[in-house]
Amino acid sequence: MIQIFVMNGPDKGRSFEFKGESVSIGRDEKSDMLMKDRSVSRRHLKIEKKGDKYFITDLGSKNGTYVDGIRIEPKKACEVSEGIPVAVGKTFIAIGKSYPNDMLAVLDSVDLFKELDEEGGAIKDRPLTAKKNMELIYKVSNVLMQSLNIKEVLERVLGHIMELLKRIDRGVVVLVDKKTGNISDVISITKTSKDGSARAFSKTIVERVLRERQPVTMLDTMTEDGAALSESMRAMEIRSVMCVPLVSKSEIIGVIYVDSVKKPHGFRKEDLDLLTALSSPAALAIENSVITCGSQRLETH
User: What's the rounded mean pLDDT across residues 240-267?
Assistant: First the structure.
């Protein structure tokens, strides 16, 4: 028997059970599992169960099939683990067991596949960023499910974010005491720099996000109203910054902050949506964990 769980799209929340050892997926009415998603090809994917292992084969679909953020080779069987999201067009499915609920919100919050044409082709002259966004979600979700202390979890999450956003120079998670609102811990990673200011972050931006509970983004500080910039931001030569709140159970528990020094446009507007979506499961992980080792204290401005 093969169980398939649909995690987003027109068939979100549905699950299917097939008694055989092979299932075909597509928009063709002859498919075992008929998909409503117009980005799915008529004959898109085949799933096979051999013993306790699952194998999927892309049948030459136009939009492809993604596993772990990587487009699998057409017409070649690929082994997949239970519960791992498989992207079929714009729809995510999981085989054998469903994916954790806290990460489903990420899939709903970010249109990873807006580059795909709903008739089954990629929109011309637009870079395919879905692969990188998917890879980041997979990596972050896997980290959040591991049994690590929260400092190590957040350092890894920041590392994966910076792997995707290449021009970002530092990533910081600032945690606050829910009772006092004061900064209680700071976890950060930075790119190698001889300048000590690279270990700092903009307290002005962080305090604004904590106060307003809304994301803040500046793609290029040189084009911003001077009143919006603090003297420390000018001194540190921060050229782009992005900061999103961490909210758990309607309470703000901190922020995720990234910036780029000396280089503008360290990210795109779409990246703010992705970071905001990732903040939800990150906040849940923080709320459910206890920091077991000291956090690195940073100079703040």
Answer: 85
